Amino acid sequence: MLSADLIQRCKNGEHRAQRQLFDQYCTPMYNVCLRYLRSDFDAEEALSKGFTKVFAGMGRFNYEGEAALKAWIKKIMINECLMLLRSKNNFSLVPITEASDIMHHDARLENMDTRYILECIAALPAGYRTVLNLYIVEAYKHHEIAAMLGIAESTSRSQLNKAKQALKEKLLQYNIKYGKG
Fold first, then answer.
1. CB count, 10 Å around CB of 31?
2. What is the pLDDT of residues 59-74, one digit of tens each?
3. Could you report the per-residue pLDDT of 88-146, keeping only the tens digit for each?
4. For the range 8-13, what are the long-range contacts, defined as Cβ-Cβ under 8 Å and sequence gap of 24 or more?
5. Of 52, 39, 54, which Cα lies nearest the Cα of 129?
6. Long-range contacts of 62-65 (CB under 8 A, 24+ apart)
7. Residue 111 near residue 80, CB atoms below 8 Å
8. Residue 65, CB half-sphere, CA atoms under 13 Å: how many?
9. At what angle do helices 15-36 and 66-88 cross, to 10 degrees?
């Protein structure tokens, strides 16, 4: 468990305290990065740059508990991932056509292997995967996603619907292939 004392020591630049903070959040933040970025290399790069920004900005952070700290670090990591994605992808080239809403519940998708679901998400095109993560996992609204990615709000909606459809198709193929459901 973290303490205000550890955070103060991090603010003072104590390397041992920074290492302790890094060790506590390294794995969960790497997993956040990997959700957005397909490769281990890119996820490690975002993680490294993210923690550099965490420690550089620690003096401006007002510690109000572990949940607030985790949310702050996670936001920095997501921003690092988005910067890396923007440098490698042109989100504005994604078609803006609206996709129809997709039925969310399908009994065949229950009891699905979590690892397979994460692999399917990782296999989605960058635009689909990014919007899906921001909307579903991080609970951003479409206007916020549009601002973050420099795209139209309708593109965000379209990419989310297309991501859901592509993910659903992959997951249903798994059930058919392995005779589940």
1. 13
2. 999 888 899 999 999 9
3. 776 554 444 444 443 444 454 455 667 777 888 888 998 899 999 999 989 999 999 99
4. 8/63, 10/55, 10/58, 11/58, 11/59, 11/61
5. 39
6. 63/4, 63/7, 63/8
7. no
8. 2
9. 50
Residues shown for the chain: 181
**Residue 121 and residue 108: Cα distance in Å, rounded?**
18
Q: Quick one: which of 151, 119, 156, 108 has its CA closest to 136?
A: 156
Residues with Cβ within 8 Å of residue 166, at least 6 apart in sequence? 124, 128
d(CA 99, CA 161): 6
Residue with tokens 């290399």: 41
Report the alpha-carbon distance of residue 169 to residue 80 in Å, rounded: 30
**CA-based nearest residue to 135, from 121, 115, 114, 116:** 121
